[in-house]
Amino acid sequence: VFSKDIQGRDCGDKASHWLTTFLGGEKTFRLVHYEPHMEPRRPAESEPLFPHFEVAYPDYGPIMLLSEASVKDLSSKLDQEVTTERFRPSIVIGDCEPFDEDSWEEIQIGSVRLQRVMSCGRCILTTVDPETGVMSRKEPLETLKSYRLCKPSEKHIYKKAPLFGQLHTVKKTGVLHVGEEVYKIIR
């Protein structure tokens, strides 16, 4: 993963068969699970920024959080509406203002506590329509670049990628339910 060896428990042939069949069967796929006793990795490019931050399979944070209002704001600037699915969030938040999620350093949803790691720098994959698989090569990435770039002091992190959504890590595990209230933790 990201040019590093990383451990994982193979979930077996039955899971592999199901996954391979579901994904079209041209290649064999294996499902692996990261367990707490396995050695994590540090994202090499972020080492100076987050010296104590460890992950297994994701690049920076296992949870990507995005609000419906932010997607609606972006859609209002485009010729064609986009949906949250285009950005592959783990958690979609409703009933807030556009980009409120940018300021949520720590949140609680039910019994789950999440800690913000960093903004999510967006890439060319945002130009792929999740319904059709067709890539536009331009939108919504170009529009995001027109108003969602990082501060000059953060260019060494994000380079030219626009920011859309927030990456979080799990501070306290639990079960999430659709419709639960989101609480911003203020210290």
Automatic annotation (TrEMBL):
<dbReference type="Pfam" id="PF03473">
    <property type="entry name" value="MOSC"/>
</dbReference>
<dbReference type="GO" id="GO:0005743">
    <property type="term" value="C:mitochondrial inner membrane"/>
</dbReference>
<feature type="domain" description="MOSC">
    <location>
        <begin position="38"/>
        <end position="185"/>
    </location>
</feature>
<dbReference type="GO" id="GO:0043546">
    <property type="term" value="F:molybdopterin cofactor binding"/>
</dbReference>
<dbReference type="GO" id="GO:0030151">
    <property type="term" value="F:molybdenum ion binding"/>
</dbReference>
<dbReference type="GO" id="GO:0030170">
    <property type="term" value="F:pyridoxal phosphate binding"/>
</dbReference>
<dbReference type="InterPro" id="IPR011037">
    <property type="entry name" value="Pyrv_Knase-like_insert_dom_sf"/>
</dbReference>
<protein>
    <recommendedName>
        <fullName>MOSC domain-containing protein</fullName>
    </recommendedName>
</protein>
<dbReference type="InterPro" id="IPR005302">
    <property type="entry name" value="MoCF_Sase_C"/>
</dbReference>
<dbReference type="GO" id="GO:0008940">
    <property type="term" value="F:nitrate reductase activity"/>
</dbReference>
<dbReference type="GO" id="GO:0042126">
    <property type="term" value="P:nitrate metabolic process"/>
</dbReference>
